[in-house]
Automatic annotation (TrEMBL):
Signal peptide: none
Superkingdom, natural source: Bacteria
Gene Ontology CC terms: membrane protein complex; plasma membrane
Coiled-coil spans in chain: none
Domain ABC transporter: 4-240
Listed name of the protein: ABC transporter, ATP-binding protein
């Protein structure tokens, strides 16, 4: 059974008199453990698709099965629960909570999952250590560089051991070297078995994913696989980040 199965997913936004079709008849399947780049021009529907995949938004029509279960039939409360159990999210602008320290930000998904404070503190600290930030745990987001903030965001996305990481332009606000560090963390998560879906404008990021789905005007315009055995970025040990 595929982890994700989209069948003729469409999304229309009805704002004024003219409805905007953001996605039209999008169908594809993803197996657990895959890595996928979603590319396409601005406005082609990439973030809309990621929002639907992450159960942050619902399609106007079509079917989305996650591990065999029809997402459209799940109640809002169960959906919230499913989001925090199965998904980790990473955004272009990091989206950390400014009044929480790095450690507290990483603890959040565990708090939502109702884990005991000592346990969550330990897990969050271990995850920050893995992304090379053991010396920044008590810093607030405003006291961290962009790359450091994104590493905190990745630690937060991974701390609950999600099946899927969904990232929208995770390197878009970072310089090349820092973007490379973030990419190798995502590659590392994928090597550990996490399914990674990344929206990106950057061909280098796409070249690190096994599959690339391109969108144009809300439709799938291309779907290609690549052999990564030779070309993936080397994994950087957290210590050198
Ligand atoms: N909440 C919304 N209300 C109305 N229209 C929307 C909404 N969100 C997206 N759209 C429209 O849907 C289309 C797809 O938007 P989307 O944000 O998915 O594009 P994108 O591919 O992520 O673009 P970018 O690369 O600029 O981030 C656009 O025409 C956009 O204007
Ligand atoms: Mg977008």
């Amino acid at each position: 059974m595929p982890l994700v199965r989209l069948e003729r997913i469409s999304k229309r936004f009805d704002l004024g008199e003219v409805p905007v079709p953001a996605l039209s008849d999008v169908s594809f399947e993803l197996d657990a453990g895959s890595s996928v780049a979603i590319i396409g021009p601005s406005g082609s529907g990439k973030s809309t698709l990621l929002g639907i995949l992450g159960c942050l938004d619902t399609p106007t029509s079509g079917s989305y099965r996650l591990a065999g279960e029809e997402v459209g039939g799940i109640s809002p409360a169960e959906l919230a629960d499913l989001r925090c159990r199965r998904f980790g999210f990473v955004f272009q602008n990091f989206n950390l909570l400014p009044r929480l320290t790095a450690l507290e930000n990483v603890e959040l998904p565990l708090a939502y999952a109702r884990q005991a404070p000592t346990m969550r503190r330990a897990k969050a600290a271990e995850m920050l250590d893995r992304v090379g930030l053991s010396n920044r745990m008590s810093h607030y987001p405003s006291q961290l560089s962009g790359g450091q903030q994104q590493r905190v965001a990745i630690a937060r996305a991974l701390v609950n051991q999600p099946e899927l990481i969904l990232a929208d332009e995770p390197t878009g606000a970072l310089d090349t070297t820092t973007g490379h560090e973030i990419l190798s963390l995502l590659n590392g998560a994928n090597s550990d078995g996490t399914t990674v879906i990344v929206v990106t404008h950057d061909p280098k990021v796409a070249a690190n994913m096994r599959r690339t789905i391109s969108l144009s005007d809300g439709r799938i315009a291309g779907d290609t696989n690549r052999d990564l055995s030779a070309g993936r970025l080397p994994l950087l040990p957290a210590a050198v980040l």
